[in-house]
Design a protein that fits this description.
Layout: E1 2-7, H1 16-36, E2 42-46, E3 49-54, H2 57-64, E4 72-79, H3 83-97, E5 103-111, H4 118-132, E6 137-138, E7 145-152, E8 155-159, E9 163-164, E10 176-180, H5 184-195, E11 199-203, E12 221-223, H6 231-237, E13 242-244, H7 249-253, E14 263-265, H8 273-283
Parallel strand pairs: 5-6, 5-7, 10-11, 10-13, 11-12, 13-14
Antiparallel strand pairs: 1-3, 1-4, 2-3, 4-8, 4-9, 7-8
Helix pairs in contact: 3-4, 5-8
């Protein structure tokens, strides 16, 4: 079984009650993503971390990199938090990722009642690796490889890579938004609203045009584009709280907007062409 350690950031700043609600939404989104690719998972959590076990590491990486709310993730090895056992696990892990002649660093952190500090853990682990693997050297500023250790109350986790997630807030925590899609900019606007935690409903005449969004939201609902002037009425009928448009400031100022009680969102406002291209590449 592959074990993934998932990290979140922005939702961790919320109050305890709101954080629990957001965390539950994030867990449900993870489970739904696994179902959409025909795989199973076991999800658990500890403060500041979510843990996912799956028998398909590739599926785990795909889900973690396409679930909003996850800021980064690592495939990890679980180990006991007791120091002697943990050091043996670190040495075994190091033999699989380090090779003679390279430099390395141990990055350790502790969050629990262990009888050692983070600095002591890093020092002891580095010493144990050097003794077991001659020919290595320690470099704490620019190492060729890094080994990370997180010692927590429930156990310890060892990993060597930190991969980037999409960040943002868990989808479904900020209400429903209607997003009309005519082209590439519209798809990006919908994606950015998803990233802000909104449940997006896409209005598009060509369902295949929004295909990239299904990797991020397997349950994405699509409807035909309303007739001219019917966007507001359609959004209200669907129970949406707002509509998102991919307009720049001059375009926003040059239009009149109906007073419907709906919020209007312009997620691309202020972004440069280079930023738009970078985000669209990330979306794909």
């Amino acid at each position: 079984m592959a074990l993934f350690l998932l990290r979140y950031a922005e939702m961790g700043l919320k109050s305890e009650k709101v954080r629990r609600r957001f965390q539950q939404s994030l867990i449900e989104n993870i489970e739904n993503h696994f179902l959409s690719v025909g795989r199973e998972c076991i999800v658990s959590w500890d403060r500041g971390r979510i843990f996912v076990m799956t028998d398909d590491a590739a599926a785990g990486r795909e889900v973690a990199s396409h679930t909003f709310g996850i800021v980064s993730f690592s495939e990890a090895v679980e180990a006991p938090a007791a120091l002697d056992e943990l050091l043996r696990s670190v040495v075994a892990f190091a033999k699989g990722v380090l090779r003679e002649g390279i430099s390395f660093a141990i990055r350790a952190r502790r969050s629990g009642q262990q009888k050692y500090t983070s600095m002591e853990l890093a020092g002891r682990a580095g010493e144990a690796v050097l003794q077991s693997m001659p020919g290595l050297r320690v470099d704490l500023t620019g190492p060729d490889a890094e080994i990370f250790i997180e010692a927590r109350e429930r156990g310890a986790y060892i990993y060597s890579e930190v991969e980037t997630g999409p960040g943002g807030l868990p989808m479904g925590t900020q209400g429903s938004i209607l997003c009309p899609v005519y082209g590439q900019r519209d798809i990006l606007a919908a994606w950015l609203m998803m990233r802000r935690g909104c449940t997006v409903i896409v209005a598009a005449d060509d369902r295949s045009a929004v295909e990239p969004l299904f990797r991020w939201y397997p349950g994405l609902k699509t409807i035909p584009l309303p007739h001219e002037g019917g966007m507001t009425e359609r959004a209200i009928a669907l129970g949406c709280r707002g509509i998102a448009y991919p307009l720049a400031l001059p375009e926003i100022a040059g239009r009149s907007w109906p007073k419907s009680g709906l919020a209007l969102f312009f997620p691309l406002t202020g972004l440069t062409g280079a930023e738009l291209e970078r985000l669209y590449s990330r979306l794909l």
